[in-house]
Amino acid sequence: MNQIKLGLIVNPMAGIGGAVGLKGSDGEAIVDEALNRGAIPRALQRVGIFLQELKPYADQITWYCWGGQMGEDSLQEVGFNARVCGQSPDTTGPMDTCEAARALQQQGVDLVVFAGGDGTARDIHRAVGTSIPVLGIPAGVKIHSGVYAVHAKGAAEIIIKMIKGQLVSLAEMEVRDIDEDAFRHGQVRASHYGELLVPAEERYLQHVKCGGKEVEALVLQEMAAHVIDDMEDECLYILGPGTTTRAITDEMGLEKTLLGVDLLLNHEIVQMDVTEQDILEWLERYPARIVVTLIGGQGHIFGRGNHQISPLVIRKTGLDNITIVATKTKLKELEGRPLLVDTWDADLNSALTGYLPVITGYEDAVLYPVEG
Question: What CATH number does the domain located at 4-199 have?
């Protein structure tokens, strides 16, 4: 077993805007609006999952962190001792992340682990560039960068490999982020901000978000026709974001948001760009089915860009009432990697693990592995 010095930085507000339909968490105004809408900060839950996986290796790890909610609180809750390198204010921001990253770098840690989204990755890049290895725990709404583990347990698995002395290569991976204001208006404007040095463990490291290749209109039409033919009256259809799910409403001559979650009932859109709470209110009145697609190049079906379809929504809808749609081209881009589930509920992630049918055309489906 190897000894390792780990730094921990937590963006406590990461992902807070997802479940309330804000499509991001960048900026004090958005955080305030999310809190006003009743959003619950959940980044600490992801960090807790990560730390629990590392408890058996406590003797091999020396922790360095920033104080309070930016790292110290999470480590104390799990029972880890840590060297606190600075204190965080009650309200944290990008400069606090940058300051923490530089301080941990100066402590000579082997690896900085940070929890956040693409905005946090940009802050880490601004602070340390490729001068020190880092690894992200995905906790944001939008995760386009290739510097994150596929989920919190995946981040822990990478570190466990390092502790066990297994060879883990390092590679420079892209930091990407989108314009959140444009995103809220249905436009994706992703920009490249540089690279971070990341442990390149293929199975557990997320790939850069792919925009996807153009697919034949006929493929999407056939897939949409299959879903439409199976629709039942008085059943609520919760349509996740993406061009693939939008093909269903296109075929029906209905409007749908590209990046939001919309609700369809009796062949009509009844509410667009809904929040988690909106969905839960509809679920009090109707049985439902969730229709989602995967994120191209990554494979996530829950936990990326569709936080409104929360664990509570999924459980109330029923695990047997989930439809996954994707073109075979999109599945082939995964090169055999499983579809991924990364919700806030570890038990739900486990329950969804296995093989699920993916609709790939009219009366055409494949069984594909899902990993939580």
Answer: 3.40.50
